[in-house]
Amino acid sequence: MTEWGLWGAPEWAGPALALFAVGLAALLWSYWRAPASRGWSTVGAVLKVVGLAALALCLVEPLTSGVRPRPGANMFAVAVDNSQSMQIRDTRGGQTRGEKLQQMLLAETRWQTQLDRNFDLRRFAFDRRMQDVKDFATLDFAGEATGIVSAISELERRFRGLPIGGVLLLTDGNATDMNYDLLDWAGIPPIFPVLIGTDDVLPDVSVERISVRQTNFETAPVTIHADIRSIGAGDREVEVTLYDEKSQELESQTVQVPAESEVATARFQVRPEHAGVNVFRVTAAGGTEEAVEANNTRGVVVDNGKGPFRVLYVSGRPNWDFKFLRRALADDDQLELVGLIRIATREPKFTFRRRGEGSGNQLFEGFNRDDEDTAERYDEPVLTRLGTEDEEELRDGFPQSADELYKYDAIVLDDVEAEFFSQDQLALIEGFVSRRGGGLLMAGGVESFAEGGYRLTPVGDLLPVYLDSDPADQLAASDSELRLVLTREGWLQDWVRLRKSENEEQQRLASMPDFQAMNAVGNLKPGAMELAQVANPSGTTYPALVAQRFGRGRSAALLIADSWRWGLRRGEVANDDLEKSWRQTIRWLVADVPRRVEVETHAAVDSQTTANARTLKIRVHDAEYLPLENASLKITVRGPDSKQVEIAAEADDSEAGLYVAHHHSRTPGPHRVQVTALAPDGSPVGECETGWVAEPLADEFRQLRVNRTLLDEIASQTGGQVLELGELNTFVSGLDRREMPVTETWINPLWHHPAFFTFAIACLIGEWGLRRWKGLA
Fold first, then answer.
1. How far is residue 9 from each of residues 17, 57, 253, 662, 747, measured CA to CA in Å?
2. Residue 321 and residue 341: Cα distance in Å, rounded?
3. Nearest C-alpha neighbor of 77 from the set 34, 43, 39, 115
4. Radius of gyration of the CA atoms of the chain, in A
5. Do β-strands 723-724 and 743-749 pair in parallel, antiparallel, or remain unpaired?
6. Domain of life, per the record (predicted)?
7. Alpha-carbon separation of residue 108 from 77, 105, 727 (angstroms)
8. 3-class SS at 224?
9. Would you say 215 and 494 are in contact if contact means Cβ atoms under 8 Å apart?
10. What is the end-to-end Cα distance of the chain in Å, rounded?
C-alpha cells in the first residue's frame, strides 16, 4: 500500500512557490502578446505550467511511502499432494497430473525462487500423513490416501503463534478425510489451493458403496446391496460379481447403469458358511477402457451371529409345541434351547388310596429319594429340566435372581399361568426385557394371557396386547376353522415369511391346516405391530401374532393355541415349515439382544486421522447387565497378512462401562478384532469379535474430477483464493501487496524516479515544439 503527501525538504516550499509564481507570470505575459489563436496558446501554456510545477516540486523533495513484507521475516508453506490420485491422466495418452505438477516444482522455477527470496519457505508433501521435504524432486505420487484435512490441521499446529503469510496447497481436492467441519478455521493461515487436474468427465466404473442388511429369513439371511457408478460412457451394462474371502465366485449378475442417474444397484442374497465374521467382495467390470481400475472392487464384513444364544422355554404341561421347537433348534449352532416343563402341579393330579406319611410327592415313590429335605414335596410343582448345562442349572425351578435369569437371551412362556411365578419372578421377567434387552414370546394356551391371570402383572404390562378381551370373542375364536393370513406389516417382515416370492408364500398359506383354538385379547398397545391374523368362516379376524419393542428388548404374542397342528401335517406336506418358522421367530427374538461384551467399529472422525483409522467402542456389563467399570480388556487385531497386534483401550468418561481403542490400518484388506474382557477380580466376563475392510485406494479414487467445492470452501474459510496451476508466477509476484504478519515501511523520493524528470522535460519540450509549429514566438 503506497502513501503520498510526504515531503523531504518542506523548508524549500516558500522559494519553490516564489519561483513558480515568477515563471507563471512570465509565461502569461509571453502568451498574452502572442498573435496565435487562444486555443493553441492555452494548450502550450498548460504544458509549460505543468512542466514548471514538476520542476518546482523537486525543490521540496516529494516522497512516496508504503508497507511491504519484511524479506525473510515471514514464513510461507508449500504443501503438495503426493497421493495416487496424481497418477490420473485427464486426457487419454496425455500426462498424468503428477507429471504436470513436477514441471512446476523444479527448484529453479521463478515462483519458487521468488518465494525463497522473500519468505522463509517451508516445503511439505502429504498423502495419508504430512512430512517435511527438502525439495520436491523425491515425490513419487504413491500415497494411498489424500489427507487434506489432516494436513491442514498439522500445518495449523506447526505454525501456531508463528508469522506465516499463507499456504500454497497443490492438490486435486479429492480428500479421503472429509471431516473438515472439525477444523478451527480461526487459527488456520490463509490457504491458496492450486488446482491440479481438470473438470472433464473421465470414463470410469466403480463400486461406490456397499451396504448389508441382515434378516432372520432362513433361506437368505444376508442381503448385500452394491451401488455401481458409471460415468463418461452413457448407458452401460456392468457385470457385477460377488466373491467370498477365498476369492471363490458366489454369484454374478449384469446391471444396466443409465446415463441419466449414473448409478445402479446390484443385490445379492447369500447365506454365510459359518457363524461370526465373514468377508465378501464385490467387483464391477464395465468392459471398456477406464481412467482407473483401483475403485472397481470393495469388500464388506458380515457378522453372522454372536451366539450361541440361550433360550429358556417354560411350559405348564408337556405338549407338542416343545417337541417341534426342540426339533427346530437342534441343528442351529446359534441357538440353544433349555426346557423347564411342569409335569405335575402343586396338588398331585393322581389320587391314591392314602397319601401316606411324610410330605414327599408320591409320584416319585420308588426312586430312592428318601431324603425329606431334597425330595419333591406334594405341595410343590413337579418340574423336569431339558438341555441344561449342568446339574445346578434350574435346579430350584425358574430363576429367582437377575444374574441367573440374565444368562438367557430369550424366554418362551407356553401355557403356564402367572401363579406359577412369584411376584419377584414376574418383576424379573419384566426387567429381563426392559433392562437386560432380552426377548419374550408368550404362546397361546388355556393358561396363557388373560386366561393365565397375567392381566395385572408386570408380564402383562410388557405384552404387546391388552388382556381385557370380551368373553364372546373368546368363544367365537374357539372350535372354529381359523385360517392364517399375513397383514401388511407381516409381509414386510422377513422372519414372518417362509418363501422368497409372494406367490410362493400365498400358496404356502393356502396349504396350511386350519387352527381351532386361540386366545382372544383386547386392542393392540401403541407401537405394537400386528403381523398375522386368523379369520373364521364368517370373515371375522382376530390377532394371531403381535410384536413390539419394550425398553431395550422386545416382546411378542403368539395367540394361536394349537400351532402344533401345523407340524402334524408334516407327512402330508413334504416340508419343515413349522420348524423353519420357529427358527426364524427365535432368531428374531434374540437378534438385538445385548451381550455382556459388545464391540463396535467406526471410521475415526478425528481430523488428525484418515479414512484408514478405526475407533473401537467396547461396552462391558456385569452379570446383571449394569455397566462394568475397571474391566481388563485384551484386544487383538489380525490383519490380512495374518499378523496380530494388541492394542490398548481406555475408559471413556462420557459413559460408564464404555472403553475406546484406536487402530490404524496400514495394510489393505480385511481386519478382524477379538476382544476378551475380565472383571476387576480377574474372572472372565466374555469375548466378542468384529471386523472391517481397509480399502484406501477405493476411497482415494472415489471421485476423479477436481473437487472444486472442497477447495473453494477451504479458501473461503481461511481468507485465501483458488488458483490455477498457470497462475502461480503472477500470484507470487503480487504477494508483496498482501497483508503479512511482519512488515516494514519503505520511503522513496519521487524525484529520484527517471519517469518524473522525463515527464517534466516532456512537458517543456512539447510546449517549445508547439510554439515553433504555430509561430507563437
1. 13, 10, 90, 71, 14
2. 12
3. 115
4. 43
5. unpaired
6. Bacteria
7. 17, 8, 17
8. strand
9. yes
10. 46
Rounded Cα gap, residues 102 and 579, in angstroms: 68
CA 234-240-241 angle, 5° bins: 165
With beta carbons less than 8 A apart as the criterion, state whether 228 and 189 touch.
no
- Locate 435 and state its grid cell: 433392562
Please state, as a whole number, how many other Cβ atoms lie within 10 Å of the Cβ of residue 702. 18
CB atoms inside a 10 Å sphere around CB 382: 18
Would you say the C-alpha torsion 428, 433, 439, 443 has a positive or negative sign? positive
User: What counts of helices (H) and strands (E) characterise the chain?
Assistant: 18, 33
- Runs of H (alpha helix) within 195-333: 320-329
Pick the closest to residue 606 from 117, 182, 80 (CA basis). Answer: 182
Using CA atoms, how far residue 487 sits from 491, 526, 530, 637, in Å, is: 6, 17, 7, 46
Q: How many CA atoms lie within 13 A of 192 on its CB side?
A: 17
Burial of 354 (0-12, 13-18, 19+ CB in 10 A): exposed
Query: What is the three-class DSSP state of 642?
Result: coil
Residue 135 backbone dihedrals phi, psi, to 5 degrees: -150, 180
Cell output for 696: 484406501
| Domains of the chain, start order | 2-68+746-774 (no CATH), 75-199+705-737 (3.40.50.410), 204-304 (2.60.40.10), 309-345+381-590 (3.40.50.880), 346-380 (no CATH), 597-697 (2.60.40.10)
Q: Which amino acid is at 12?
A: W
Query: Which three cell numbers mark 654?
Result: 462420557
Distances in Å between the Cα of 71 and the Cα atoms of 109, 119, 126, 166, 736 are 19, 6, 27, 15, 10
Residue 700: name the closest of 121, 145, 69 by CA. 145
Contact, 127 vs 696, CB < 8 A? Answer: no
Q: How far apart (Å, rounded) are the C-alpha atoms in residues 124 and 158?
A: 12
Q: Are the CB atoms for 553 and 436 separated by under 8 Å?
A: yes
Task: Give Cβ neighbours of residue 88 (< 8 Å, ≥ 6 apart).
Answer: 96, 97, 172, 197, 202, 291, 292, 701, 704
C-alpha span between 436 and 596 (Å, rounded): 10
* Bond from prior residue into 308 cis (ω within 30 degrees of 0): yes
How far is Cα 281 from Cα 649, in angstroms, rounded to an integer? 30
Cα separation, 447 vs 517, in Å, equals 13
> CB-based contacts of 261: which residues, under 8 Å, 6+ apart?
none
**Contact (Cβ atoms closer than 8 angstroms) between residue 694 and residue 669:** yes
- CB-side exposure of 260: number of CA atoms within 13 Å? 0
Helix axes 320-329, 577-590, angle to 10 degrees: 70
The CA distance from 599 to 631, in Å, is: 14
Mean per-residue pLDDT pooled into runs of 10, the chain (777 residues): 57 70 69 61 70 70 72 90 90 84 86 90 91 90 88 90 92 82 80 89 87 73 89 85 91 87 88 84 82 88 82 92 90 89 69 48 52 54 89 92 94 95 96 95 93 94 88 55 92 89 90 88 94 89 94 95 77 69 92 91 60 85 92 93 90 93 85 94 92 86 88 91 90 86 73 70 72 63
Identity of the residue numbered 766:
G
% helix, strand, coil for the chain, step of 5: 30, 30, 40
Q: Which residues contact 393 (CB under 8 A, 6 or more apart)?
A: 338, 385
Place of cell 399361568: 417
d(CA 679, CA 687): 12
DSSP 8-state symbol, 85:
G
